[in-house]
Amino acid sequence: MTGPALRLTGAAKTYPTGTVALAPASFEIARSSFVSLVGPSGCGKSTLLRLLAGLLAPSEGEVSRGADISETGFVFQDATLMPWANVRANVALPLTLKGKSEERVPDTLRRVGLEGFAQAYPRELSGGMQMRASIARAIVTSPQLLLMDEPFAALDEFTRFRLNDDLLALWQQNQWTVVFVTHSIREAVFLSQRVIVMSPRPGRVIADVAIDLPERRDEALRGSHVFADRCAKIGALLRGAMTGEAA
Q1: In a domain, 28, yes or no
Q2: Which residues, 6 or more positions from 223, have their beta carbon under 8 angstroms from its beta carbon?
Q3: Which of 17, 23, 129, 156 has the least C-beta neighbours within 10 A?
Q4: Nearest 5°: phi and psi at 101?
Q5: Quick one: 4 and 14 in the same domain?
Q6: Residue 114 sits in which domain range?
């Protein structure tokens, strides 16, 4: 297929209360790309993600997706697992709701490192393992599009780094189109091919930055000067947005 996976054309969102969550935004997201959204709290990142998911309709403008983008996985900030169900049942939920076979579940658990925990319950899992189960549930349907709303925000730095590494490996293997919301500049730069920077509410796209780092992202890259430079660039853009000054 040619053309972008997602396209926003003047898409904006005003809630019934009158709150302008998102000013008109126009950009495209290429197939199989990894794009992060960063910006201050309340700037409309999550609103924008829900517009892309089709969970919200724009108040004006248009959000469209490629004809082949038929399946979307969504990972929320909280794992949102059913506490009364084991890991296998939680991961199988999207298949169960669609009346599909659950034969993909064991392989999906293996892909996220949970092959030995199918019978475990959420309360028996660490925060990182719960998020792995949430990711497994999002990818068990083999989506073309994966949307992630600050999925690692509540985790400690070590666990977050491990999950960043694992997520990148999964993306490289499966070539999903990923849109990832985060407050962490370092996380956005480490994971992404592009970082879209948003202003305080009403959220506007103020920069769209290509991340020209090697395809191999590892611990050595995190400690490199080139990585620090890219993080500093995004940080300057955010500070400029907060103060109203050009970076």
Answers
A1: yes
A2: none
A3: 17
A4: -60, 145
A5: yes
A6: 81-143
Give burial (CB, 10 Å; 0-12/13-18/19+) of 93.
middle
The 10s digit of each residue's pLDDT in 84-129 is: 999 999 999 999 999 999 999 999 999 999 999 999 999 999 999 9
pLDDT (tens digit, 9 = 90+) per residue, 5-20?
999 999 999 999 999 9
For the question of whether the overall pTM of this predicted structure is more than 0.90, the answer is yes
Q: d(Cα 15, Cα 114) in Å, to the nearest integer? A: 39
Q: Which residue has the tokens 């997520």?
A: 167
Q: How many residues does the chain have?
A: 247
CA 105 remoteness from chain centre: 22
Please state, in angstroms and rounded to a whole number, the distance separating the CA atoms of residues 209 and 164. Answer: 20
Q: pLDDT digit string (tens) for 52-77?
A: 999 999 999 999 999 889 899 999 98
In a domain, 55, yes or no: no
**Token code pair at residue 57:** 């309709």
Which residue type does 62 have?
A: E
